[in-house]
Predict the 3D structure of the following.
Amino acid sequence: MGRRLQFNIFRHNPLDPASTPHMQPFIMEELPNMTLFIALNKLREEQDPGLQFEFCCRAAICGACAMVINGKPGLACRTKTVDLPEEINLLPLPFFKLVGDLTVDTGTWFRDMAKRVRSWVHTDKDFDPKAQEERMDNALADEIYELDRCVECGCCVAACGTALMRPDFLGAVALNRVARFMIDPRDQRTDCDYFSVIGSDEGIFGCMGLLGCEDVCPKQIPLQDQLGMIRRKLALAAAKNFLPRFMRS
Amino acid sequence: MSNQSSCSCTAQPQGFRAAYLDWAQMLSGAALVIFMWCHLLLVSSVLLGQGVMNAIAHFFEATYMAQVGGPILFLIFVFHFILAARKMPFRSREHEAYFEHAKRFKHLDTWLWVVQVVSAVIILVLGSAHVYTVLSNLPITAVRSAARVQNGSWLFLYLVLLPLTELHVGIGFYRIGVKWGFIKRSTRKGFHAKENLLTIGMIAIGVMTLVRFLTITVQ
């Protein structure tokens, strides 16, 4: 017989004027290999059909089921109950707009973020649909893919003390996105162009190095290393202005 | 299609100010880290003998490094506080957001930042008092320092100032490494452990120095 788990789940419907935010306890027996995704579905099926939470792929690919699990942002589908104590507190991700219970709207913020950091390959080359695709070195393709694995779950932003204090801060996801274009040879932007996008206190210079992002990213994207690289690169780009004009390249 | 990548370095919409301020914060912090470690080691020379400390102090005064360097370092100290204070949660909304998060998250690096903020404010006040009394009572000698430490209220000040400064300096050193990418994911854990040892070692040397000052006979 499995453990008796107590889930304390945040409940609130912002559209209902009568609803007040509160924690609701649910009791459930633990099953073998149970993930939070399985547990929440079982809760909704058996105990409360009105419970709101989001999921799609149940394999840590869509990033929809991110929530705060015992204080730590993570993906419900990737979290096994066996790794948690008997009492499990579930909160919606902070920072994002609450839709209801454990569901937040990450999409609006992510769309806006992508526009702010101009998240697309900038090139003046005309696309020729008939030409053969340009070859890319395998090692470089791997390097780009490593940063492209982000599923936009929002855990890094929800774990960032800076972002929670200052909602205009771009967060690790946006800075990692820029890092991905920085190493992409198809993108013709210079350090200086990137500087105009993230060279501010809302961008890389607002990062206080708290490393919440690094420690919660469910995809283990090397955020710490990327943030350090961007800061050095852009700070050096700015420092070049102190050089005599003929030495700036 | 127009070339969206064109950008002139001389016409930045926001300028390079954020980068310059970040440079200044890091460089002033690094300078203070180096200074604080040297300072502690030089003062702890009293453990080798009063004569050693007096000779070192005399060297810094004869070369005017104390008289000129002292005030300059104090300016860097205040400058660093102002730069770093840009990040502090002064507004109630920021304050609440950070502390709610830190309590919920139980994450070491998130709490270490709280230690840095709180220690910064205390160091600003106590450190200013320390710098003022030392620089307005030159020359520095082992006996004078001992007399100050043996005066009850100053001992209390140093017992607070010493560990807080070493903590702030140690955490600051780690954070510079993390923020500027000198400490990588692969080296973070090891660096953290070594830096903890260094901080404990520095506090231990400081406490031994204070104990030595307490035992020096003052006429």
Observations:
- The helical segments of chain B are 17-43, 50-62, 65-85, 92-105, 108-135, 142-150, 152-179, 188-215.
